[in-house]
Design goal:
Length: about 400
């Protein structure tokens, strides 16, 4: 007998389809769960995910105070319509990251009205106090944690030399303690690699028997080689979903400064005027060699990868690294660090260097540029690894199995 259709609520406090992995994960997992026969409702804060027509979106609203190109903006009086909006403004005004807590307040109100119609709640790294309350009440629930946010906080603090700025960072990352407490209450935690599972146990004290590893996927029909595009011999491509120490863009810029002047870098991702990476570009004299192209569509990203001599993932830490898998799917040679789950994801099919090691990264990039034939052979094998290992359909199937495990309890 076929297993029953599930009614799934998928919550995410930010579903931006063009920055970071949360929006991509939400949209692709929802689409493939529907393809398996389930009903999926995504409940999201802004910026909202770009969903398939078969997936219902419940936009909860919010002030989106960190939106580009005007982060930390002051909303107009006409935008503040209720006490939750006021709380969101107050959190930002006192230096806190407001989105998770404000989303939680709105989500809690929505769930009280609509929650009874769902079989299971799947939270994508919101981990708010409202989700903790629902877990204590016995709501069937799982949560995805792509990597422990405690790592982001620690790396940001280590990179900041000013005492008062470290105080500000601790305030900004104040939501992390809420997320850790909530994660410990949720029956099953999904994460994306064995490395991330170990780190969740160490960083957040989540019992290993409550964690399930479900690697995420890539749409190989979009992320693919473009055989008609000629590959440059001197262009490097990277994605930067945020200009923060965790992503290692500063390390890549330092490596670029050690390479011949004809080598150039294109950076895909949100751009903020006056951000640390932009200041470093000018300090290193790289203004003519670094091209910030801002947020790009998936098709534009594929075109850039098709032209590039190699892609680089310079992250200090990644639970999984969707950028690495997308580059591998495009058949572009890859240089990556060994931070977090990157060694596991890449599977020996890229040149890898220790996180934060500028000299080693420059040497690895130079080695790829010096031997494009060997790099191309690795890249072809890397695409085959992606096709065999990282499928959204398989991710949805394994996620469904975890839902049924929770419901059987």
């Amino acid at each position: 007998m076929a297993e029953e259709r599930l009614r799934i609520a998928l919550s995410v406090y930010r579903g931006n389809p063009h920055s970071g992995g949360q929006g991509v994960y939400t949209a692709e997992l929802a689409r493939h769960l529907v393809a398996l026969g389930h009903e999926v409702t995504v409940v999201a804060g802004p910026p909202y995910p770009d969903l398939a027509p078969s997936v219902e979106l419940v936009p909860l609203g919010g002030l989106d105070l960190l939106r580009q190109p005007d982060p930390f903006r002051r909303p107009g009086l006409d935008e503040v319509t209720d006490w939750t909006d006021l709380a969101e403004v107050a959190l930002m005004a006192t230096g806190a990251f407001p989105d998770p807590r404000a989303f939680g307040l709105r989500f809690g109100r929505w769930w009280r009205r609509a929650g009874r119609r769902f079989d299971i709640l799947h939270d994508n790294q919101s981990l708010t106090s409202q989700h903790a309350r629902l877990a204590r009440e016995g709501v069937a629930m799982v949560a995805s944690i792509h990597h422990p946010i405690t790592v982001d906080r620690r790396l940001a603090l280590e990179a900041e030399g000013s005492f008062w700025k470290r105080v500000g960072l601790r305030r900004f990352y104040g939501f992390v303690n809420m997320q850790v407490r909530t994660a410990r209450l949720i029956p099953r935690i999904l994460t994306v690699s064995a490395s991330a599972a170990r780190d969740l146990g160490r960083e957040m004290a989540i019992a290993r028997e409550r964690i399930r590893v479900v690697p995420i996927g890539v749409d190989e029909t979009v992320f693919r080689p473009l055989e008609h595009v000629g590959r440059s011999r001197t262009l490097i491509a990277t994605t930067a979903s945020a200009d923060v120490p965790l992503k290692g863009l500063g390390v890549l810029l330092g490596a670029l400064a050690r390479l011949p002047r004809e080598v150039e870098l294109v950076v895909m991702g949100p751009r903020r005027e006056g951000a640390p990476a932009e200041a470093l570009v000018h300090h290193l004299g790289l203004a003519e060699r670094v091209h910030f192209v801002g947020s790009v569509t998936r098709e534009q990203m594929v075109s850039i990868y098709a032209e590039a001599a190699l892609a680089v993932v310079p992250s200090m830490y990644e639970g999984f690294s969707l950028p690495a898998v997308e580059a591998m799917a495009c058949g572009v040679p890859l240089v990556a660090t060994t931070g977090g789950g990157l060694r596991e994801v890449v599977g020996g099919l890229a040149l890898q260097v220790p996180p934060g090691d500028v000299r080693s990264m420059a040497s690895a990039i130079a080695a790829v540029l010096a031997d494009p034939a060997a790099a191309a052979r690795r890249a072809r094998s890397a695409r085959q690894r992606v096709l065999a290992t990282y499928s959204w359909r398989e991710a949805a199937r394994r996620t469904e199995a975890v839902y049924r495990e929770v419901l059987a309890r």
